[in-house]
Amino acid sequence: MTTDLLSSAQHILAARQLLAPCLAQTPNQASFIAQINAVITHLLAACEQNSNVALAMIQLDLNGPYTVRHPINVAIVVNLALKNLGHSETERWHFIAAALTMNIGMYELQNELSQQSSALTPEQLGQKSNSTQHKVAKRYAT
For 24-43, how does the pLDDT look when each residue is reduced to its tens digit (9 = 90+)? Predict the structure, then answer.
C-alpha cells in the first residue's frame, strides 16, 4: 500500500488495522518495533495531511474495538500537542510510541471490560490494580 495516496482518514484506519494484531499477540521484539513504527508512520502522515480530519476521526469514527481506538486517539492528540509545542518529529516519535503501548499489559482485560455491562468482578478489580509493568515484563519475557 503506497502511503502517499492515502487520505488522512485512511491513514488512521490503516494505523488501527496495524495496531490491532500487534496488541493482541506476543510478537518478538524486532517485529513489535517494526509494527509500532508502521503505525506511527501512518499517524504522522494523517496529522501532517490534515490535523482537523485526524481529530475528527476521534469523535466521528467509533468503529472497531475501544482497545485499539483509544491508543490511536491518544497518539493523535499527543502528536499534535507536541508539534504545537515545537517538538521535532523525532522527539514526538517516542511519545507516540508510548501512547500506543500505554495499556498493553491490560489489553485482554480492557477488551473484556469494554464489552461488559455489569460491575467489575473481584477478580477483575484485582487484575486492574496489578502493576502493568509486571504484566508487560511477564508477557515479553523470553
Answer: 776 677 788 999 999 999 99
